[in-house]
Amino acid sequence: MAEYVYKSLKGRRYLIVIDDIWSTSAWDDVRNIFPDDKNGSRIMLTTRLSDVASYASSGGLLHEMKFMDGNHSWNLLKQKVFLDGQDCPAELDNIGKEIARCCRGLPLAVVLVAGVLSTIDKIQSSWEIIAENVNSVVDRPLDQILSLSYTLLPHHLRPCFLFMGGFPEDHDIHVWRLVKLWVAEGFLKRENGHKSMEVEAEEYLEDLVRRSLVLVTSRKSNGKIKRCSLHDLVRDLCVRKAREEKFLLTGKYVLPNGRIDLRRVSIGHCCEDEIWSSTIRTILCFPTFLEGSSLSFLVSFRLLRVLDILYDSYVSLPHQVFELFHLRYLALAFTDKIPSAISNLENLQTLIVRSRVGHRLYTAYPSYLPLEIWRMLQLTHLVLPGRYRLLNLADKSSFPLVNLQTLSVIASPVGSRRILEMIPNLKKLGIICHRNEEHHDLHNLVNLHQLEKLRIIAFGSFSWQGRYPSFPTTLKKLSLVGGQLPWNGMSIVDSLLNLEVLKLRDFACDGDTWETNNGGFPQLKFLLIDGSYLQDWITESIHFPRLKCLVLHACPSLTQIPDCFGEIPTLELIEVDTMNEALVNSAKQIQEDQQSYGNDDLQVRCVHY
Asked: What is the residue-wise DSSP string for 422-479?
């Protein structure tokens, strides 16, 4: 057959469409069947795997299919139902659009429904029946197609994918939280000892995205995934497979009582006396779950490893929590102090505390974390709402928290030498500074030799007043919020050789002129200025040699972006808010100038602010 196809196409100009290629090896098997006579012939293939698409395109452009909007879905539906140029009756217009909307942007779903509509009377009552039963029309054939994606998943990705079915429908999943949950569950293979488990988890997620099973809803300034979600149909598959494999049970109302084969549950709402199963290791809870509960039911879950009740609020931590010796991950919201009994959780790796809804994130009167926090040697991530301080250790009897990588957001002072000695491997730090006396506290940050991400928030009366902090050269991301650091003080920042992301918010810098220096910002890729009275920006393109994205929001006094930004070869995007018309025109002028030189890669985005 291969020889026949080759001879039939030899010397002819052809267009071949190959649908649903699943591997690079499959492409290698068929590509040589088609002769390349340099005559303009083309091969078009579809695949769910971005790796396969990149491999087959040999570096060419890829067309990534998007979900159809309502209008496109309706137009396709009409095209398939009303053949030979027939018009759609006016009385079917509204119900037809509703049917198209129920297909959730999937062309195949539209085609399947259109096939059914073509066989019934084209009257409103008949179409209303279909509108009420769209799922029954499309679910089975689509499920068979999607099931193949799951069947071909590598085994190490399956638990990660099934776990995502525990989040509610249409839920925007924060990746920082998902990654920590995967780590606590023990899903990571840890094949490469040089990578952290969090980095490996992010790679797992990117793999699921490449396989078209997970949707990216937003990315960070460094290009990594910030939030993601599952399409409704993919989530349905995920939930069903998780239930079939006794991996996770997702319940909207009631958790079956007395099940002895459950390991993980995700609950939307139930009463505490409806929950019982000694085998459960993971409980995920979402809004309206156990509202007002005392959490006394937790005494039944001695083997619990993961407890996430971040969406429910408690005045204080119930004592039952501190009896869960095996807990690795705890996330919840409450307003009281963290008690010393927290140290009973010797295996805890991640502690996430959020303020209750309606309570201020920051306060001028922070409370102290218990001294016993220094006994939690397994603690890796401590995520707080900004109203807690660390107590200084009076002696050196405690061991350093060598596993602690995240401490955010903590109230200053945090930079005493003794405290920094106790957190030597910290990679991410968020600090709230309340008083001007805390300046000296920030000079010691230079001793955090593993620190990669730093956020400093000025609160209350704090301002830099010409006293500048010292930053470790390992920093890759720096965010300054408030504080009015003079623009000439940016010399302490532009010399950071590894800095890739710089965010200046809420008048982080003070003054009307910023003159940058030669040799500054050698690795900076993303620059955000959000809230500033900057008027004159004196710079050169060589001062930002690797900049990819420039974002300027709420800069009413800045009327022009320096023309030299157009000369930065790596620049891909300039984003400005529409409130500053002069800045919008300046950005567009830079774009037009670059287009006249043949550079069509620079994009300008104007956003409402």
From this structure: H-TT--EEEEEE-SGGGGGGGGGGGG-TT--EEEEEE-TT---TT------TT-SEEE
Which residue in 348, 434, 433 sits closest to 383, CA to CA?
348
Average pLDDT of the residues of the chain: 84
Digit-coded pLDDT (tens) for 506-553: 999 999 999 998 888 999 999 999 999 999 999 999 999 999 999 999
573-577 and 549-553 as β-strands: parallel, antiparallel, unpaired? parallel
pTM for this entry: 0.81
Q: What is the pLDDT of residue 274?
A: 53
CA distances from 8 to 40, 122, 215 (A): 16, 45, 41
Q: 607 has which bridge partners?
A: 577
* β-sheet bridge partners, residue 411: 432
List pLDDT tens digits, range 153-187. 889 999 999 999 999 888 899 999 999 999 999 99
Distances (CA, A) of 506 to 201, 483, 524, 531: 33, 8, 21, 5
Q: What pLDDT digit, counting tens, does each position of 213-271 carry?
A: 888 999 998 889 999 999 888 888 899 899 889 898 886 544 555 555 678 888 765 44
Contact 181, 329 (CB under 8 A): yes
Contact between 250 and 165 under an 8 Å Cβ cutoff? The reply is: yes
Which stretches within 58-106 are classed as H helix? Answer: 70-81, 93-102
Give SS3 for 607: strand
Angle of CA points 396, 401, 405, to nearest 5°:
145
The candidate with the shortest Cα–Cα distance to 153, out of 228, 46, 238, 64, is 238
CA–CA separation, 308 and 264 (whole Å):
12
- 328 and 347 Cβ atoms separated by less than 8 Å: yes
Identify the DSSP state of 232.
H
Of 450, 449, 459, 511, nearest in space to 480 by CA: 459
Please say if the pLDDT value at position 393 is more than 60: yes
- Contacts of residue 360, defined as CB under 8 A and 6 or more positions apart, other chains included, come to none
pLDDT reading at 587 higher than 90:
yes
**Is the N-terminal amide bond of 493 cis, ω within 30° of 0?**
no
Cα separation of 377 and 346, whole Å?
Answer: 7
pLDDT of residue 301: 81
If you average pLDDT over residues 488-494, what whole number do you get?
88
Q: Cβ distance 145 to 108 under 8 Å?
A: yes
Query: Do the Cβ atoms of 153 and 209 come closer than 8 Å?
Result: no
Strand, helix or coil for residue 307: strand
Strand partners for 15: 42
Catalogue the E-assigned strands of 459-565.
477-481, 485-486, 501-505, 509-510, 513-515, 526-530, 536-538, 549-553
Residues 539, 562: contact at Cβ < 8 Å?
A: yes
Residue type, 568: I
Instruction: Round to whole Å and give the CA distance between 546 and 21.
Output: 37
